[in-house]
Amino acid sequence: TKEVNRSLPGVVSQRYKVFDENQSPKIFDVDEERARVQEEELEVSGHDPYEGISLKRGTTGVFEIEDLVKLLQKERGRDILVCRVPPELKYVDYLCITTALSVRHMRGLAEFVRKVYKIKKLPGDNIPKIEGVNCKDWIAMDMGNIALHIFSAQSRRVYDLESLWAVGPDFDPECNKPVDPLLVMMEQHTNHLSG
């Protein structure tokens, strides 16, 4: 076999170069390029947002309470409280309360919990709505078996859900305020007119 002369004539060699397959960039199709970019981003960031979080659906609900607490701890939720709700209330199994560091952190926590919920859920499970997403003090999510409340530090002190759920309405000052006599008279008058 004869070696092919790969040199170009004088003027052409100054403007062009001989194609060499080994020195040209590899061109990927769209799907390959997206996969490659995602891999590079993961390698560059070195951070897996789901590391240490169980992505399997729980048995009593999409989240088991232990999994939710681990997630909140990982995402820097503060003063996490879990309260078992009596079954006779037919509400949820657990009430989970945490404090966020800022409004942005509060929204980010709620959105991340919802994102993990979407990964864990089965096709028949409803995706929880983030209640109070535009509120600066309190965000709540009903996840079926768990009610999650994310507070600002100030609002958590004001609403004091821990005490309300721990001692019940008998010891809640708001529930035990004296009844306004004018309100009682108006209710009696309304009942008299409708009866």
From TrEMBL:
Pfam families named in the record: RsfS
SUPFAM superfamilies from the UniProt entry: Nucleotidyltransferase
Single Gene Ontology BP annotation: negative regulation of translation
Superkingdom of the source species: Eukaryota
Subcellular location: Mitochondrion
GO MF entries: ribosomal large subunit binding
Gene3D superfamilies xrefs: Beta Polymerase, domain 2 (3.30.460.10)
Cellular component GO terms held in the UniProt record: mitochondrion
Main location: mitochondrion
Keyword tags: Mitochondrion
PANTHER family membership: IOJAP SUPERFAMILY ORTHOLOG (PTHR21043), MITOCHONDRIAL ASSEMBLY OF RIBOSOMAL LARGE SUBUNIT PROTEIN 1 (PTHR21043:SF0)
Function summary: Required for normal mitochondrial ribosome function and mitochondrial translation. May play a role in ribosome biogenesis by preventing premature association of the 28S and 39S ribosomal subunits. Interacts with mitochondrial ribosomal protein uL14m (MRPL14), probably blocking formation of intersubunit bridge B8, preventing association of the 28S and 39S ribosomal subunits. Addition to isolated mitochondrial ribosomal subunits partially inhibits translation, probably by interfering with the association of the 28S and 39S ribosomal subunits and the formation of functional ribosomes.
Family affiliation: Belongs to the Iojap/RsfS family.
UniProt cross-references to HAMAP family, sorted A to Z: Iojap_RsfS (MF_01477)
Protein name from the UniProt record: Mitochondrial assembly of ribosomal large subunit protein 1
